[in-house]
Amino acid sequence: MGDIGCYCRVSTQEQSLDRQLESTQEYAEGEFDADLGGLRFYRDKSTGTDTDRSDYQQMMTDAESGEIDAVVVHSISRICRSISDLERTASRLEKAGVELHIISEGLTLRPDESDPYQTALFQLLGVFAELEANMAQQRTKEGIAARQQNDDYHHGPAPLGFKKNDGLLIEGDNYHEVVTVLEMVKKDELSKRKAAQRLDTSRATVNRALKRTELYAI
């Protein structure tokens, strides 16, 4: 067994990573009989200056380049923000031949094992990811339809992330970026000021968008 990657993430600068660091280290030492020198710690604090989970990206790069053989996380919520996010992560690690150990939920995904439970789990992750995407798409369509019946829409500018085309409201080029940023603001992972800077708009516009959650399926 090569190096073990221990991934830890918190949502704000003020939160401590200590509990996750201790949990993943103890698990890795017990499960793999690894010493401290064989562990790689990846730490993310989702602040206004680091919204892209840079250590997560580095960990996935290390996994895909063969530098680590297993990833250990304290819980599902630490490594992903949604079912589709988890499905993507698990699939990438599986293709790289890297094990994924999720301590709190007691899940272990081993690419080389022919385990019916594991196969079913991956299939379920894919189904739920597709369902999640379809539900979000439907909520967005319903929100757009409702907005188009509103006089404010007809006489005002298109909401953030949208544009008008022949009197119809359609998604703009930056729609998905807007959704991602608004989700982070709602989860207190990004301030409204930083969100406005990232989207090149005003805090007032961000505030208005947050009151129209039906448009963004958040």
TrEMBL record:
Annotated InterPro entries: Recombinase_CS, Resolv_N, Resolvase-like_N_sf, SSR_resolvase
- Keywords associated with the record: DNA integration, DNA recombination, DNA-binding
Q: Give the superkingdom in one word.
A: Archaea
Pfam families named among the record's database cross-references: Resolvase
**Boundaries of each Resolvase/invertase-type recombinase catalytic domain copy?**
3-151
Give the transmembrane region(s). none
Q: Which GO terms describe its biological process?
A: DNA integration
Instruction: Please provide, alphabetically and separated by semicolons, the GO molecular function terms listed in this UniProt record.
Output: DNA binding; DNA strand exchange activity
Q: What is this protein called?
A: Resolvase/invertase-type recombinase catalytic domain-containing protein
